[in-house]
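re: ur question from earlier - yeah i can do the single chain one, its not a big deal. heres the input i used so u can compare w yours
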Amino acid sequence: MEDPREAVLRTRHERGPGLNVTEAREHDASDAPQASHGIFRDRAAERALWLVVGLAAVVLVYVNRHSWFGGDEWFILTDRGLTAGPGHKGLFEPHYEHWTTVPILAFRGLYSLVGLHSYLPYIALVIVVHLATVVLLWHVMVRSKIDPWVALCFVAVFAVLGTGFENLTNAWQVTLVAPLALGLAAILVVPESGPFTSRDAIAAAFMTIGMMCSGVALPMLLTVVLVALVRRGWRVAAATAAVPAAAYAIWYLAYGRESPAVAQTAPRAVPRFVWNGITDALGDVARLEAIGVIVVVAVSAWLVVQLLWRPIDRNLTVPVALAIGAVAFLAATGYRRGNLFGSDPAASRYAYVTVAFVLPLVALASQSLFRGSVWRRVVLILLTLVLVAAQVRKLDHQTDLARPGKDSDRGAVLATAALVREGRKFLLSRPLNAFEPQVTVDEIVQMDHDGKLPPIDEATVTDRLTVLARLDLFVGPDPVVPVSTVAHVKSARHLSLTTHADGCITVRARPDNELVLRITGPGTFRVRGEGLLALRLRDPATRAQGEIVYSVLPPHREQVVSASTTDGLLVVSFPTDHPTVLCDVVR
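and the output i got, formated as C-alpha cells:
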C-alpha cells in the first residue's frame, strides 16, 4: 500500500488514472485493522519468544548442574597466556587450526575471577550466547516473512537442541556458537538497500570478532556477503567483507599457516559430509533418520520451484544464503577433518551449526503447511511440544552419560592436590583419565597454590585410590622402581592358578575375575600374556575402589608392573581369551 503523502508528490502518470489522495486514504483505512492485527500478533509472538528463552535457560542450567571442566578447556586453562612463552601458547596461536583469541580472553578472565570453584560462570557464557542466537534466528526468520508463530515453534526446538548437545553442555563450544550469533546480528543490522553506511561497518566489526572465535565465522561471512551482494551489489559486499577477511588473512599468515594439520585433507569426503551432515542433523532433530532425507528433498524441490518463478521472491535471500553457508561449513569441515579417525559429519557439535544455518529455509518452505485453519496450528503446536520434549530428554541423557567422567576428573584434581599437600611423590605426572593428558600434577599444584581449586576435602576415598592407581602403578617393558618382590596373593575369584617350579604362576581367567594382591612396599612383578590387564586399588576397610587403569599386554613380550603405593589392595583382572603368566608374586 502506498503512502498518500508520496502519492501527492508523484506525477499523475506515475500515480495512475485511478489513484488520488482520497482513494489512498480509503485504502489505508480499509487496511488498518489487518495491519493492526498483524502488529499485535508479532508482538504477542515476540513476548512468547522471551518466555521460550526463559524456559530454555532454566532447562540448560538444570542439565548442566553437574558439569565440570574437560577436553579443550584444560588446554586453555593450563596452556594459554596473554603471550607465548616456554611451555605455553599465547592469545593468537591456533587451537586445532582455529583462531580463538576472544574465547581465550573470556576463559582466562573467568579463571582469574572464579578459578575452578564453579563451572557455572563458564557454562553460562555459552548458554547466553546460544540464547542470543535463538532470539536472532527468530528475528531473521520474521524479517524473511516467516510467520512469527511458525518461527517461534522452530526456534523453540532449537533452544533446547539435544541434537547439538556438545555445544550446550561444554563451555568451550562457545567458539562455535559465537560466530553464528555474530553473523546473524550482522545480517539484521545491515540496511536492505543503499550504499555502504555505518551500519555496515558495525556488521563488519561483528564478523571480525567472529573471526577471532573460530573458523565457523568463515561460512557465516560468506552468508553475510551473499546477502549484501544480492541486495546491494558487489561494491557493498566487498566493502563489508574487507575488514574481517583482511584480519583473518593477516592472522593466518602470521600464525595459522604454522599450525600442524589435524588430519590430512580429504576432498573425497566432502560430498559425504555435506549430504550426511544435513540429512542426519535434521533427522536427529525429528528423532528419525529418514525424516532428514525427506525434509532435504522436499525443501530442495520447493526451492527449485521458487527460483524458477518470476519474479524471484526477495524473502528467499537470507534463508538461501544461510543454507549455502551450511553447505560451505560442512564442505570445509569434511575437507579438513574427513580423514580424522572417528570423524562424523553428524557429530553434535557440527549438527548444531548445521541446524542453525538451515532452519530459516526449512521454516520458510514448510510454513504453508501450518498456516490457515485452526487444526493446522494445533498440529504445529503439538509437533513442537513433542520435538521439544524429545530434545530435552536427549540433552538430559547426554549430560547423565557425561557425569561420571566429570565427577571423576573433579575428584582426581582435588585428590591430587590433597596427596601433594601430604608430601606424596608419584611415579607418573598425569592424574586424570587417558583422554585428559594435558593436566599434570605440577599444574594442579600451581592451581592449588593460587587458590583456584574447590575445597580439597571434597575428594573421596575413591578419588584418592583412582589417582594413586594412575600415578603410582606403571606397566611397561622395564621397571621404574627398584626390583623387589612385594606382591602377595590375598584372594582370587574366577581364576585357576597353577604354580610352576620357577615360582611363576599361570593364570586362567573366567569372566568377572580378580586377583587381590597385598603390596608391602615399592617393588615389581612380571606379567606375560595377551589382551587387556586391568588394575585398580581397593580400600580393605571400606571396600571402596578406585577406577580401573588398563594396560595392553603385547603377545609374547614380558611386561613389568611397577608399584610404589602401599595404599589399599591391588586388584588385578586378567584377559579371558589367553592364559597369563605372573612372576615374582608370592602365593
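The first helix runs from residue 4 to 9. not sure if urs matches, ping me
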